[in-house]
Amino acid sequence: RLHATDVTSSSFRLLWPKLLSQETGYYTLEYAPAAEPARKRTQQVSGAHTSLVLRDLAPETTYEVALIPESNVHYFPPQTTRVTTLAEEISPVQVLISESGPRSFHVSWAPVLDSVVSYQVLYGPLPGNSAKVLEVDGRHNSTVVEHLAPNTTYLVTVTAVYRSGKEKSLSAKACTQEGE
């Protein structure tokens, strides 16, 4: 009967039936990642409550949750449930082009997330359809694009590839300087 709603990558709301009142006791809430029970956290909740939001959780993690009614009147068995947080899918929110020269420029992006395996930097001259791709490790947030044509506008698209297989992209334009 204990269940979760409003699940995100870092939080969820627990709901439970009214078993206690302010006068008859309180609840002890215990929760931990199912894979790491030793990381259990405990919280006390007033008997008047029938819901609580848990925050600062890890994304894509299954939590074992136990609600223990501590009553001075009746015995209530603990209520338990399992809740899995969502994957953290945030696209790159910024793509910055800097240090532009005739044949290269520097591309950087933010934020850098643990859930990203790699970034793909796709670039090609505008107008045109001859794009090239650079693969960048997920721990890095910048790269240098080289061997470009001078005085040319490029479309640069940074795609975050998540562990879940999903992809999110953001584009920016870059211009190379005039050559010698």
UniProtKB/TrEMBL annotation:
A Pfam family reported for this protein in Swiss-Prot or TrEMBL: fn3
Organism field: Orthonyx spaldingii (Chowchilla)
Subcellular location(s) of the protein: Secreted, Extracellular space
Signal peptide extent: none
PANTHER family assigned: FIBRONECTIN TYPE-III DOMAIN-CONTAINING PROTEIN (PTHR46708:SF2), TENASCIN (PTHR46708)
Keywords: Glycoprotein, Repeat, Secreted, Signal
Name the record gives this protein: VWA1 protein
GO cellular component, one term: extracellular region
Predominant location: secreted
Domain Fibronectin type-III residues, every copy: 1-89, 91-179
